[in-house]
Design brief:
7-stranded mixed β-sheet, 3-stranded antiparallel β-sheet, 27% helix, alpha/beta
Length: 258
């Protein structure tokens, strides 16, 4: 597919924030992009729809929702499905039906898997935020007329009408967490530098959140971003990146294991 191997050097990565000015998208700096994101959220009337990739980190998913505190939100994660396939010779391990690494993290953050409902709500939404999902042409048509913000790794000419395009890092260019099917929260580590001006999605969402109200302070690291998620997601309360270590912790036993 067009997105396979996107962690390699690709010519169609979004490398700078793009803001709509005079009817076209123009490159800008992060200060202007974050101010515009905060303004778009603040000005949004009616529901906000978030359409997220199942590859998004727990930190990205959680902070995007926190940015929208107080707004009526319809948030869904796209979870491709396939047949469960046991791995020969490996006990208790199988390729799961859900072909998304962080569907469970999305549910913890308040997203549903009702993708069709969220797509249907996009046309009448006050704002639609795309957290780097893969959209087919019908889905693009459903969101293209909305006031649109893209958190994006790749350019997409089909969505050229967006108000704001925010370049984000991929899983190999950032630190973060996923939640596996057994409720185990696991860290992943940055393995290479990000292209251009790309930043983790949580950093962008938190930066705009900070601008939304006086007295707020955005986290400065993925560890700080994760530690703050417990305020809105009780199963994560009290957990830190340090406590997760290299093997992670299952949510049911995390408190007792400390």
């Amino acid at each position: 597919g067009r997105r396979h191997y996107r962690w390699m050097n690709r010519g169609d990565r979004v490398e700078a924030p793009l803001i709509r000015q005079d009817g076209r998208l123009r490159a800008t700096d992060w200060d202007a992009a974050l101010e515009r994101l905060a303004a778009l959220v603040g000005e949004a009337s009616g529901a906000v729809v978030v359409l997220a990739s199942g590859r998004a980190s727990t930190e990205a998913l959680g902070w995007t929702m926190r940015l929208l505190d107080g707004k009526p939100v319809t948030a869904a994660v796209k979870v491709p499905m396939g047949d469960e396939a046991p791995l020969p010779g490996v006990p208790n391990l199988a390729l799961r039906k859900e072909r998304a690494p962080n569907g469970d993290g999305a549910r913890l953050a308040g997203y549903t898997a009702d993708w069709a409902r969220a797509i249907g709500a996009a046309g009448s939404a006050g704002l639609v935020i795309l957290l780097d999902p893969e959209l087919d042409d019908a889905e693009v048509a459903a969101v293209a007329s909305a006031r649109l913000v893209r958190f994006a790794t790749l350019e997409d000419d089909r969505l050229a009408g967006a108000e704001l395009v925010l370049p984000i890092t991929t899983v190999v260019e950032e630190n973060g967490t996923f939640v596996n099917r057994d409720g185990r929260v696991q860290r992943y580590m940055q393995a290479r530098s990000a292209p251009g001006m790309a930043q983790p999605a949580w950093w962008i969402a938190a930066g705009a959140w900070e601008l939304g109200e006086a007295g707020r302070a955005a986290p400065g690291t993925a560890a700080e971003a994760f530690a703050a998620l417990g305020a809105s997601s009780p199963p994560l309360a009290g957990l830190t990146h340090g406590e997760l270590g290299l093997t992670g912790r299952t949510l049911e036993t995390a408190g007792a294991a400390r």
